[in-house]
Amino acid sequence: MRRLQQFSRTHQVGRAQPLSLDDVARDVLGLTRGHWQDGARARGVSIEVEHRLAGATTVQGDAAALREAVINLVLNAVDAMPKGGRLMVQTRIDGDHAVLVVADTGTGMSETVRLKAHEPFFTTKGVKATGLGLSVAYGIVRSHGGQLSLDSTEGRGTTVTLTLPRAVAPHPAATAPAPLRPGALRLLLVDDEDEVREALAEMLQSHGHTVLTAAGADEALARLETEPDLDLVLTDLVMPGRTGWDVAAGVKARRPHLPVGLITGWGETTDVDEARRAMVDFVVDKPVTVEALQEAVARVRER
């Protein structure tokens, strides 16, 4: 039911702002790393990832929605390469339009499958799949006044092309901060990867939350000492030096009742003892989506 509701919302775009498709591409590759790198390695295969970004790819749109569309395309591409392969994410300028391309060297589609691929619930992945990945992307792109095209050959891979109208970015101007929505939280987000941290912060801020950030465990625990009014700490698990478990332990030692959420990649919490698990209040799997974050944050609000 949740995925059906998600599909029904794909034509409803949030507040449109100038954004770069290059930034969308970088964010998505960071958010999906657990699948195309860690997940592939866990299966004993290798997926080579290449990105070519053109610059000046500013469009008017909802960054969170466009990220979701491209995440769906990247995950589809990874699923289509069970034996490994090559994933290309590229941006370019085409006259008055900015273009983002996701291409893979995977199993590809027959002509019959390709013609049905935009239909909701149509899937080549078996009975357990929702079949909504490409349909979600298609709806989001159309709601931005753009086009999504699909080029695929069975056994030779798939290329999906998003084409959106270009926009001229306005000059920076001072604006008053948006008022907090009811139930909005003040939270600390911890992640060592700049692009991922910024993307997650933007997701949360777009839903009215106040987000403070830290690039590692030491910085996070230092900020904890100067921020008495936090409602939540959200931390990546795998970071250089001290990990998300160290962040959770430090938080609970200082403020036992402050909730801690853990962001994890492929299989990172499978061999963890109960004592460590007890230090975190919830886990969000990568790639992180707005929907998953909102569900986790809602559980914190209800306490």
Task: Give a structural overview.
- This protein has helices at residues 2-8, 21-31, 33-42, 63-79, 111-116, 133-143, 194-205, 217-226, 244-254, 274-277, 290-301, and strands at 17-20, 47-52, 58-61, 85-94, 97-104, 147-153, 157-165, 186-190, 210-214, 232-236, 260-264, 282-285.
- The radius of gyration is 20 Å and the shape is globular.
- Helix 7 (194-205) links the parallel strand 8 and strand 9 (210-214).
- The chain folds into two domains: 8-165, Heat Shock Protein 90, CATH 3.30.565.10; 186-301, 3-Layer(aba) Sandwich (Rossmann fold).
- With 303 residues, it is an alpha/beta fold.
Q: Into how many domains do the coordinates divide?
A: 2
Q: Any idea of the CATH class of the largest domain?
A: Alpha Beta
What does the overall shape look like? Answer: globular
CATH topology of the largest domain: Heat Shock Protein 90
Strand content: 15-25%
List the topology elements.
Layout: H1 2-8, E1 17-20, H2 21-31, H3 33-42, E2 47-52, E3 58-61, H4 63-79, E4 85-94, E5 97-104, H5 111-116, H6 133-143, E6 147-153, E7 157-165, E8 186-190, H7 194-205, E9 210-214, H8 217-226, E10 232-236, H9 244-254, E11 260-264, H10 274-277, E12 282-285, H11 290-301
Parallel strand pairs: 2-4, 8-9, 8-10, 10-11, 11-12
Antiparallel strand pairs: 1-3, 4-5, 5-7, 6-7
Helix pairs in contact: 2-4, 2-7, 4-6, 8-9
